[in-house]
Amino acid sequence: MRNLLRLSACSLAIAFAAPLAAQDDEVVDDEFGAREIIVTGRGLDPALSTGIYATTTLDREVIIASPSGRIEDVLRGVAGFQQFRRSDSRSSNSSAQGVTLRALGGNATSRALVLLDGVPLADPFFGYIPLSAIAPETLGEIRVTRGGGSGPFGAGALAGTIELESAEPGATAGFLGSAAINDRAETELSSVLTQRLGRGFAVASGRWDRGQGFFTTPEDQRLPATARAAFDSWNAALRAVAPLTDDVEVQARVAAFRDARTLRFEGADSTSEGEEASIRFVGRGAWAFDALAYVQTRDFSNIVISSTRFTPALDQRRTPSTGIGGKFELRPPLLEGHDIRIGADYRRAEGELQEEAISAFTGLITERRRAGGATANLGLFVEDDWQIGPLLVNGGLRADRSSITGGFFDAVTAAGVPVSTLVAPDRSDWTLSWRAGASLNATRRLDLRAAAYTGLRLPTLNELYRPFVVFPVVTQANAALENERLEGFEIGFDWQPVNALVLSVTAFDNEVENAIANVTIAPNLRQRQNLPAITARGIEAKLAARFGAVSIHGSMAWTDAEVRGEGASLSLDGNRPAQTPQFATSLTLGWQPAPGWQLAGTLRHVSAQFEDDLQMDRLAPATTLDAFLSAPLIKKLSLVLRAENLTGAEIVTRNQGGSIDLGVPRTVWLGLRYGF
């Protein structure tokens, strides 16, 4: 922590001390007619090839109008986006907050790469995304690209990439503040302060959410020990952007978060927390470049309560982990008509589980366990976009050297007598990944596109070395897990029949070889194993339209996903992956009758899915209706009314042998916003 704070202070000192830099090539003239380039704090412009692959872009208007006020709710409007469970970041275990795309789920670890201003957000030990640490009000744009990644940090983009970009200073100029309370007396507070510093700027932001939560347990299954899903989370960040030269700027960011939750039973408390710092240099000259370095420290704790005696059965007291990494990307002007990108990236994750098993009868420690290790990945990549009249062609290659080292698991009795010991052999390998595609501007209003790609994901330390129990099911770790590999292709079109309407449709066929899943090997016993493959074939569609004051945003994903099993997993052959719906759709109708007014309603449906790999426990389909209203009061002050699950639909998020968890019930929020 002390080293992190030192790095943070140095990063900010560099940013504040630097002179003017160019940013985004936005040129204006001052009162004397001098040339001035405005600093906006963004990275390099997206590659031309972004349009070749199935990509959805969400603007700030959509991001800050979420009925729940949470980033996962914003992303649920993207075709193919899926969390491991249907519950949001207030009522789920943090370590289960994996995100994926294209129904390539069945695992709590993220199969999609999530970046904030170019920095990977996945937890170094578990691979989950700290969703509660992402404040939507600080973001200006979200870009979601489905399909295997090839550029920076592409080794984590097995199912696709979700890029979160901080808002430009004009969007958060001065002070933004909001406060809200719901019908359960839960509260939200957030603020964003932006200060111009010469022609650079600094942004300080903070958010605090807390509440008693709702009962995730159905009324007919509640016991005296049943507890509400209470939550108490905060996050804070400071970001500074300043120039070094007319073509180079520096961006520095430090952030911290803490999230405490209670799930199911009194005393079943979990806490995730972390700090991070990053520094980034962006050059926009003829030889454009993007250089980034970051460090993350994370910790997770969790107390498991016995579901029969309702006393502590496990104290996962600490899981400290560290992630360090960086990238360098160069865009040399070598050939006319070509946009070439060359670079390298590196990420290392290390961590250690520290937990004690406790007798539910005596309350005494029966076993002490430690597990951990390190994973690392060095990637080299080159990519080119070639414009040939109406045809845009893209090709990219990545070479990744991945390594898994220092793996171990130790279990001893309370007296220190060894129970189980594992020392995993170190291993490393090189993997080649690629992607290629083309987009044809067939007419002024119709683009046709096709692409093929491969992808890679390393197993996490959690999957390799940490066993766990959700009574009565024991899930074993597996230190021999191999890397997941994706192969896929897609075809699609983007059609704009009139200026106010855009329709995009994509058909895809993706296959994850060596897919890591929790595989049932005996009654109440599972093990993390590499399945031969998970295949996913389907259709995604998105619709965006605006007719005067009325807007329509829709998305749909239909996916035929199944497990290919053989040998020990033969019984799973043909099954749908766990936690994977076949159909999901979202439709938002918005109305802005006057400046400052905003009214929107969102209808969502997700089809049935299975809790487990054997398809024994079914999660019923769910249809929800959400609403958002913002009405101006005076100057920059607005009244905000938000509603989640207006119809009070029952959302089953877990079904383990008839033991049920439910998602958010009908919830109404009333609040004030200033400056939005």
Task: Give a structural overview.
- The chain is mainly beta and 676 residues long.
- The protein has one domain (2-674): Maltoporin, Chain A (Beta Barrel), CATH 2.40.170.
- The chain is 4% helix and 58% strand.
- The strands form 6 sheets. The protein has a 26-stranded mixed β-sheet that branches. A 5-stranded mixed β-sheet has the order 3-8-9-6-7. A two-stranded antiparallel ribbon has the order 1-2.
- The radius of gyration is 25 Å and the shape is globular.
- The two termini are 34 Å apart.
List the helices and strands and how they pair.
Elements: H1 2-17, E1 27-29, E2 35-37, E3 55-59, H2 60-63, H3 71-75, E4 81-83, E5 99-101, E6 112-116, E7 119-120, E8 139-146, E9 160-166, E10 174-182, E11 187-197, E12 200-211, E13 231-243, E14 248-262, E15 269-283, E16 288-305, E17 312-318, E18 321-331, E19 338-358, E20 365-388, E21 391-413, E22 418-423, E23 427-443, E24 446-457, H4 461-465, E25 468-470, E26 473-476, E27 484-498, E28 501-522, E29 525-547, E30 550-564, E31 583-591, E32 598-606, E33 609-610, E34 618-619, E35 622-634, E36 637-644, E37 652-656, E38 659-662, E39 667-674
Parallel strand pairs: 6-9, 26-29
Antiparallel strand pairs: 1-2, 3-8, 4-5, 6-7, 8-9, 10-11, 10-39, 11-12, 12-13, 13-14, 14-15, 15-16, 16-17, 16-18, 17-19, 18-19, 19-20, 20-21, 21-22, 21-23, 23-24, 24-27, 25-26, 27-28, 28-29, 29-30, 30-31, 31-32, 32-35, 33-34, 35-36, 36-39, 37-38
